[in-house]
């Protein structure tokens, strides 16, 4: 058995590395809408 590393994608809005299908922790956006306010 082998554990694979989680895949990564880049945020189209800010370019930060994030997990696919998750809110970007850098800018707070998911699918072109603001989900969380990041200061």
UniProtKB/TrEMBL annotation:
Pfam families: Ribosomal_L32p (PF01783)
Name under which the protein is recorded: Large ribosomal subunit protein bL32
Sorted UniProt keywords: Ribonucleoprotein, Ribosomal protein
Gene: rpmF
Lipoprotein as UniProt keyword: no
Organism of this sequence: Collinsella stercoris DSM 13279
Family as reported in the entry's similarity comment: Belongs to the bacterial ribosomal protein bL32 family.
GO cellular component term of the entry, any: large ribosomal subunit
InterPro entries: Ribosomal_bL32, Ribosomal_bL32_bact, Ribosomal_zn-bd
GO biological process: translation
One example GO MF annotation: structural constituent of ribosome
